[in-house]
Amino acid sequence: MRLAVFGATGRTGLLIVRQAVDAGHHVTAFARRPEALGAERENVTVALGDVRDSGAVAAAVRGSQAVLSALGTLRLSEHDALRSFARAVVPAMREAGVRRIVALTGTGVSEEGDIESLGLRLSNALIKGLAGEAVRDAYECVEAIGASELDWTIVRAPFMTGGPLTRRYRTGTLRMGLASHVSRADVAHFMLALAADSGLYARRMPMIRT
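-> structure tokens emitted (210 positions)
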């Protein structure tokens, strides 16, 4: 597949790029700092740009079969980056005829039907207290993508670790607590599986944890 990966130089994005290339996919890696990708790898095209630049976003999407966003770990000072990305990528995908998008966010973004455990409530309250503007930005991003006609899936992850790829993780509507976690490598693996199967969790917001 030809994949456009946004947030490609972040800790999760780099793993998405590496796993995608190892699986034989071609990746357009969108980045403001292409040097963070390290040495050039076969089947990786670097697209230089900022997610607030709709023209750069559109250029990266063109020719792709699916879009993945690992922009959930942006610096807390960038309170409009996620919604700016959503507002740019939806029309870009529509124009390019690309339907599948898989985006990463945190469990601080809730939806009807979530298991309202004490741990999840405490975790969300802590996140909103420390990074309320970032949470609002994430909500607006999710709303913009979710309101589109695209084949979208929003992956909601708890605390992500630097652990290895295990392929042993749970997904769906899960009970979350303060100690819930998952490795970034497993998140990348799940997101790539979603990109390859447009019917898997289509127009849903599954959680992931070990």
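The longest strand covers residues 100-106.
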